[in-house]
Design goal:
alpha/beta; 5-stranded parallel β-sheet; 45% helix
């Protein structure tokens, strides 16, 4: 099977876009197989081309050959939200995850035939959704900020964020720094045509996904009939509008915008 890796920040629309693509009859959909694995535990550690991750590589190679190594899976999310039929001769193996920002170089080196895409969503919308769902308390507190600062200090290409590691930041700015640094790291690893726009796809899923389907040799499929579904597996119900525009204060937006500028360009 052709291997498609789809990655994006939490609340960037990975479940929405992965859920849409998972409805295509030629796709086997694997939801967050790396949760609680070495990939998840080292999400702020860059794996470049040539990095050795034998367990993860063995899992992906097995998937390509039509076998799921259940011993590798550590999270019940995989079994609850994946949708696959390995005996159905489907063309594409889609792996959706949210912790691969620092692993793009490894993925492209170890699996040169794989198709790796990132999901772009307005970072202000990501920030708002994290706040709205209180994920900043659960996942993006001080430990994540500390790891982000270490990554910024160590990785070429992230120097633009150094000034923010040397001064106090508001809670919103701390989260913005985590979002921006990880997103920029993925921007550096992907080509301009290896991105899917969340805003584009929610507005017109057929237009937004047609090039990807064509690239993978899949037949046309009408995703528009599925666009109103709520593909969230955690958090508050899906909203069909940009709540950040009305719910983030002007002071918060002015505080985080300089951090986001380096990735919105």
């Amino acid at each position: 099977m052709k291997l498609l890796i789809l990655n994006g920040f939490d609340r960037s629309g990975t479940s929405y876009i992965g859920g849409l693509l998972g409805q295509h009859p030629e796709v086997n959909y694997f939801f967050q197989p790396f949760s609680s694995t070495e990939v998840h535990k080292t999400q702020f550690e860059v794996w470049g081309e040539g990095y050795s991750a034998p367990d993860s590589e063995r899992f992906l190679k097995a998937i390509q050959s039509g076998v799921v190594d259940s011993e590798f899976i550590s999270s019940d999310w995989f079994n609850r939200y994946s949708s696959y039929s390995l005996d159905a001769n489907r063309k594409v193996c889609l792996i959706k995850d949210t912790k691969l920002h620092a692993k793009i170089g490894w993925l492209k080196g170890a699996f040169p035939d794989a198709t790796v895409y990132g999901i772009w969503r307005d970072p202000r919308a990501i920030l708002h959704s994290l706040l709205r769902n209180e994920f900043h308390i659960k996942w993006y507190g001080e430990p994540a900020l500390k790891k982000t600062v270490e990554m910024i200090c160590a990785e070429p290409g992230l120097e633009c964020f150094m000034e923010y590691t040397e001064r106090p930041l508001s809670p919103e700015a701390q989260m913005a720094l985590i979002i921006a640094a990880r997103t920029r790291l993925m921007l550096l690893g992907l080509n301009h045509d290896e991105w899917l726009s969340y805003e584009h796809i929610t507005a017109n899923p057929n237009s937004g996904l047609s090039n990807l389907c064509e690239r993978l040799g899949m037949n046309e499929f009408d995703f528009s009939k599925l666009r109103e579904r709520d593909y969230n597996v955690i958090g508050l119900p899906y909203q069909h509008k940009d709540l950040w525009r009305s719910e983030l204060s002007k002071s918060v937006l002015s505080n985080v915008q300089p951090i986001f500028d380096s990735i919105q360009q």
